[in-house]
Design a protein that fits this description.
Helix content: 25-40%
Largest sheet: 7 strands, mixed
Shape: globular
Number of helices: 11
Structural class: alpha/beta
Radius of gyration: 20 Å
Strand content: 25-35%
């Protein structure tokens, strides 16, 4: 194989200190192949998605804080250009297209890793939070945790599946909802929501989409949602959801909002035996519900945190069949601060993907 020329420096978006403005630097060192530890790989990034989590990490408004200076990003797709010497039993190889996810590495030996909760490993490393992420031309990751990208899946579309798609897919997968069950998706027309609609439909669930605006209504219904509720036009949200779900309420709600408001009414509109999947990550909000009705209705409240390696493979495979299509806007790495400002102001609709290949 022809040796791959690895530059000494690269362009990357760097957060110098928590809360500081991004800096696009052109002199960020690239870890050379000879410097890679066993198990590490160097990935040349093609494209990377932008997530609200990246904004939280840069602003430091979560209970967990990022290591700075930091290169954010955790929805990266690229090509492996080097693997650390003495790496044994690597499941990937040089030249392979892979995804770099939020969970960059875990021990794979603890109870959490052995039971499919790798993301909860006490030794976990997180892309764009505790280790440098994908807002750069090159990123160091780990061979056991990068995810092969199906050939039929475009790199830009795959980027958003690596976090947004994976997150909603896992929440639906572990919700207990079955074929024919009603699933409520607040924020269904948004970046995570529009993917959740498609995964739910593909999994045989019946979707009640909640959002606002004619454009989002058309999108959700076109993606397969059976019912639409505009939260700005509906005075009785609980009553409307129950009516939409055969008068009994939904079997499941997947709440991706980053505020507590999306959780407040779920206990009321879920039918007995229903499940509330908590996915959004507001930094300081509390989850409040009626203990009486939670018990009396046998409601399950479950936290669902991104996904493990198998969940990622499954989410990508479904997208590769064409049953889940990502709606995204393409921007350049130099526009990242502009994207952050838009996210902070609530002006970003859908997913944003950055082209890093140029």
């Amino acid at each position: 194989m022809t040796p791959i020329n690895i530059p000494q420096t690269q362009v990357a978006a760097v957060v110098p200190t928590v809360g500081a403005k991004l800096e696009i630097r052109k002199d960020v060192p690239v870890k050379q192949p000879s410097q890679l530890a066993p198990g590490e790989c160097l990935v040349k990034i093609i494209s990377t998605g932008v997530c609200h989590t990246d904004l939280h990490a840069s602003r430091g408004d979560w209970p967990v804080t990022a290591v700075t200076p930091l290169i954010g990003g955790h929805e990266g797709v690229g090509t492996i250009v080097a693997i650390g010497a003495h790496t044994e039993n690597s499941p990937v190889q040089v030249g392979q297209r892979v995804g770099v996810k939020w969970l960059a590495n875990s021990c794979l030996n603890c109870e959490q890793c052995r039971t499919g909760l790798e993301q909860c490993c006490s030794q976990a490393k997180f892309s764009g939070l505790t280790v440098d992420g994908t807002f750069a031309q090159y990123v160091v990751s780990w061979v056991q945790h990068v995810t092969p990208i199906p050939e039929s899946l475009d790199s830009r579309a795959a980027a958003s599946i690596l976090c947004a798609g994976l997150t909603v897919y896992r929440a639906l997968k572990y919700s207990g909802a079955r074929i024919g069950n009603w699933v409520v998706l607040p924020g269904a027309g948004g970046g995570l929501g529009h993917l959740a609609v498609q995964y739910a439909v593909t999994m045989g669930m019946r979707v009640v989409a909640i959002d606002t605006g004619a454009e989002k209504k058309d999108l959700c219904l076109a993606l397969g949602a059976e019912k639409w509720i505009d939260f700005k036009e509906t005075q009785d949200i609980v009553g409307a959801i129950k009516e939409a779900c055969d008068g009994q309420g939904a079997h499941c709600a997947v709440v991706t909002t980053a505020t507590s408001a999306g959780y407040a009414q779920a206990i009321d509109y879920l039918r007995p035996g229903g499940s509330l999947m908590a996915v959004g990550l507001p930094g300081s909000a509390k989850l409040e519900s009626s203990i009486f009705w939670t018990v009396l209705k046998s409601i399950s409240i479950l936290g669902s945190y991104v996904g493990n390696r198998q969940d990622a493979v499954e989410a990508l495979e479904i997208a590769a069949t064409g049953k889940v299509v990502v709606r995204y806007e393409l921007k350049s790495l130099s526009q990242l601060q502009e994207v952050y400002d838009g996210l902070a102001e609530g002006k970003i609709a859908g997913r944003i993907v950055l082209d890093v290949s140029q």
